[in-house]
């Protein structure tokens, strides 16, 4: 059985002067990460590894989650940045097979689209939302449309 934890990056600045790739998290964004990581811990949800976009806001989100959960440093994958649904699916199909539970930290609209494609669940995915999808599959490349079941979904409440 494979499990995927989708995480949308936390609240990032929209101030001018930053290239999109370099936009940092706001103070609120860091607080969202700590809150959501603690909620996952309370629910006993702990992936084996985290794979993240190398953009500053996603990598910062992943770093807070790894620190809070005691996971190893996140693996970056440039293909997650600004990824369409198809590009994200390609990343997922190529996740390391030795891991059965992986977190992926990315951007919208791709995260929302993949959540719907893999689970059929229509959910609002505000910054720092988390969603766990479970699959009756032995390999990441076996996943297909609506193959998974959404078993956990949470968003930070403002």
Summarize the structure.
This is Histidine phosphatase family protein. This protein has helices at 27-42, 56-69, 85-93, 110-119, and strands at residues 2-8, 49-52, 75-76, 101-106, 130-135, 148-154.
Counting H and I runs of at least 4 residues, what is the number of helices? 4
CATH class: Alpha Beta
How would the global form be characterised?
A: globular
Head-to-tail CA distance between termini: 34 Å
Annotated CATH topology: Rossmann fold
Mean of residue pLDDT values:
96
Strand order of the largest sheet: 3-2-4-1-5-6
> Biggest β-sheet: count, sense, barrel?
6 strands, mixed
Unreliable stretches covering 5 or more consecutive residues? none
Could you give me the name of the CATH homologous superfamily?
A: Phosphoglycerate mutase-like
SSE ordering = EHEHEHEHEE
CATH architecture: 3-Layer(aba) Sandwich
Name the assembly state.
Answer: single chain
Organism: Mucilaginibacter rigui
Protein name: Histidine phosphatase family protein
Pfam families: His_Phos_1
């Amino acid at each position: 059985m494979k499990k995927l934890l989708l995480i949308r990056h936390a609240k990032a600045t929209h101030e001018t002067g930053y290239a999109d790739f370099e936009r940092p998290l706001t103070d609120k964004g860091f607080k969202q990460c700590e809150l959501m990581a603690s909620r996952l811990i309370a629910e006993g949800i702990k992936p084996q590894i985290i794979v993240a976009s190398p953009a500053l806001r996603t990598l910062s989100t992943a770093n807070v989650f790894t620190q809070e959960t005691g996971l190893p440093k996140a693996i970056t994958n440039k293909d997650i940045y600004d990824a369409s649904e198809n590009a994200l699916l390609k990343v997922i199909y190529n996740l390391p097979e030795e891991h059965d539970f992986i977190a992926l930290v990315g951007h919208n609209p791709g995260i929302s689209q993949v959540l719907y494609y893999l689970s059929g669940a229509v959910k609002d995915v505000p910054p720092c939302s988390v969603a766990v999808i479970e699959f009756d599959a032995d390999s990441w490349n076996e996943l297909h449309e609506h193959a998974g079941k959404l078993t956990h979904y949470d968003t930070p409440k403002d």
